[in-house]
Fold this protein.
Amino acid sequence: MPAARFAEQLNVQIGNELAAHNQYLACAVYYDDKTMPQMAAFFYAQALEERDHAMMMVQYLLDTDVDAVIPGVEAPVSSFADVVAPVALALSQEKRVTEQINGLLRIAREEHDYASEQFMQWFIKEQVEEVATMSDLLAVVTRNQNDIEDIEEYVAREQKTGEVDPTAPRVAGA
């Protein structure tokens, strides 16, 4: 059974992941409205990924006989100044989530909760990838903000979605 302090904070993180899901949906809708189908598809996929992260955490709590709590979340930012703003927001969000994930790992270590520490290792790796992806995308979108076709071409060429990581934790309900 996870340490109580870890379980409590993991429930908070479920809310953080669901808030990230909603924020990415808002970004996707923005790009869809701008007729940028590659960027929209990228952010729709990111939204599903964040939802899956929340559900992985739910499954871990269920597997360890701890109550999983699905909290309410604040409304996402849904209006943006330009095509760069959603990506800048996404990078900021990924950096914040990285801090939250690192905090969860820290709690697991402090509590000598080795199973929870092992569970968090996948999320640590995932956050390195997420920050790198958003950093690269922000550089491309900033450089090409006046050339939407170049942005769309980059996303179509470079952003691979739908790849399944066999090391990922199980997703509740999947």
